[in-house]
Amino acid sequence: MLWNTVAQTVELGWDFYVPVLIFVALIAMAVPVWAAIGSSAILMLLMSGDLPLSLVGERLFTGIDAFALTAIPLFILTGDVLVRTGLSRKFLDVAEALTCFTKGGFGSATVLVCGMFAAISGSDAAGAAAVGRMTIARLVEAGYPRPYACALVAAGACTGILIPPSIAYIIIGLVLGISASTLFLAALIPGLCILLSILITNLVVNRIYSYEGGGNLTFMEWLSNLGRSLKSGWYAFIVPGIIFYGIFSGRLTPTEAGALAVVVTISMGFILRTLSFADFPAMLLSSAKVNGVILPIIAFSAPLAEALAIMGVPQGFVTSVTGLTNEPWILILLMIGILIAAGCVMETTPNIVILAPILQPLAENIGMNEIQFCIMMITALGVGFITPPLGLNLFVVSGITGESILKIAARAVPFVLCMFVVVLFIAYVPAVSTTLLPEIYK
After folding, report:
1. C-alpha separations of 323 from 2, 7, 235, 327, 333 in Å
2. CA 105, CA 128: separation in Å to the nearest integer?
3. Which of 293, 297, 304, 294 is nearest to 19 (CA)?
4. In whole angstroms, what is the distance from residue 118 CA to residue 159 CA?
5. Are 367 and 328 in contact (CB under 8 A)?
6. I need a labelling partner for 116 at 20 to 30 A (CA). Which of 82, 98, 238, 389 fits?
7. Distance (Å) of CA 238 to CA 118, 235, 243, 265, 303
8. H or E segment at 406?
């Protein structure tokens, strides 16, 4: 009913429906997303005749001609270097020392180290792979069922796109013309809320099923353990310290912070003798593969966004939806439903470049702050990382352990519910996203 109303309002024809059907068919055939988007965009422009095809090449270039995008490969490379130098294990040691006084301490440490890794790499899949290799076997030894251990890592790794610096916030900032530094600042509290909700959920589940014991240390024993772990691994926190201080103090742009983080991490690897020049080819190739998936999607999304704008799809969507109801709380629920459903079947980057220009006018129409909208959108899409059928993090941890994706997904249900509650909190309480921002953004 809703889409029929949109179609009538915008007067959509075959020049819209045929490219969309082809896009769906290509995705179903596992064609790379960038190729599906590019083919659909070119066909849409060719059939509609609204934009000369000679301009497509120009739009492909201008779509990625942005200084902010340079930060993406830098943060990805920093995460790779962090793993190869062994610094990520220092994070785990400190996280374990912090949480060893609680029942379910190593499970909580796993979630914390996911958050620490997220504060550097900005990638959820990289976090799931790195943390999963370090922790899943130990979680099973501690008493957790393997499917639940996998689900815990997959859920914790969702913070990769939710805690700044995040690749997703760089992309949505580019799409909607918002400073990445501003979005990083706004995302800090929501990202920590997601992390805290996963921690609490794990503690509750662990208390119900008694997977893991622990929590028998005295305060002095806990303090001693923490002191030893910090003494042996304090230098690992130099990298996230540089990123956070540089970006949030305004002294560095995200790109500059990423470049400095790469240099410092590599230097530390050579000083500690955990990195050699022989590691560079594999390290650079790994980072290039991840970056090579993201940037073509952004490039081909530019002509697609222009074609949709010329056809009036975003404006027609707003007119049609507000014609059905004027209740802001219902419209917010509708947007959240669309985002979570989209996150279940497609990766974050294409969802951002396709849906952000369509949904942002609707959010603006009901008075939602553009910063709040971005935070809500990314957080809602983050739920899709542990939700079938795509559930990227589910596939990553399944690939590491050989565990059934369906079994992992079943154990991830409590984490999906807790993240959904946080999404609602972000959507209906603007202060969660705007408290740390200057007055001009509130």
Report:
1. 10, 13, 57, 10, 16
2. 19
3. 304
4. 6
5. yes
6. 389
7. 15, 5, 9, 9, 41
8. helix 405-411
Q: What confidence category does residue 429 fall into, taking pLDDT thresholds of 50, 70 and 90?
A: very high
Polymer length of the chain: 442
Nearest to 144 by CA among 411, 402, 414: 411
CA distances to 109, 186, 204 from 430, in Å: 30, 10, 28
Q: In which residue are the tokens 């440490």 written?
A: 109
DSSP string, 311-326: HTHHHHHHHHHHHH--
Of 186, 183, 165, 173, nearest to 75 (Cα)? 165
Question: Under DSSP, is residue 253 helix (H, G, I), strand (E, B) or coil?
Answer: coil
Q: pLDDT by residue (tens digit) across 200-223?
A: 999 999 888 888 766 666 777 778
Do the beta carbons of residue 157 and residue 114 sit within 8 Å?
Answer: yes
How far is 366 from 436, CA to CA, in rounded Å? 23
Q: Give kind and range of the element (H or E) at residue 205.
A: helix 180-209
Cβ atoms within 10 A of the Cβ of 334, count?
17
Encode pLDDT of 381-411 as tens digits: 988 888 887 777 888 888 888 888 889 999 9
In angstroms, the Cα distances linking 104 to 127, 140, 155, 211 are 21, 12, 16, 7
Residue 136 burial (10 A CB sphere; 0-12, 13-18, 19+): buried
Between CA 209 and CA 262 the distance in angstroms is 42
Q: Residue 42 is which amino acid?
A: I
CA dist., res. 423 & res. 379, Å (int):
6
Burial of residue 4 (number of CB atoms within 10 Å: 0-12, 13-18, 19+): exposed
Sign of CA dihedral 8, 10, 15, 20: negative
Q: State the maximum Cα–Cα separation within the chain, in Å, rounded to a whole number.
A: 74
Residue range 70-87, pLDDT digits in tens: 888 888 888 888 888 888
Token readout for 309 is 């704008």
Q: How far is CA 256 from the centre of its chain?
A: 21
Helix H segments across 100-145? 105-121, 124-142
Would you say 314 and 361 are in contact if contact means Cβ atoms under 8 Å apart? yes
CA angle (165, 168, 170) in 5-degree steps: 65
| Cα 373 to Cα 362: distance, rounded to the nearest angstrom | 10
Question: Residue 242 to residues 34, 90, 174: CA-CA distances in angstroms?
Answer: 33, 17, 23
Question: If you ran DSSP here, which 8-state letter would residue 85 be given?
Answer: T
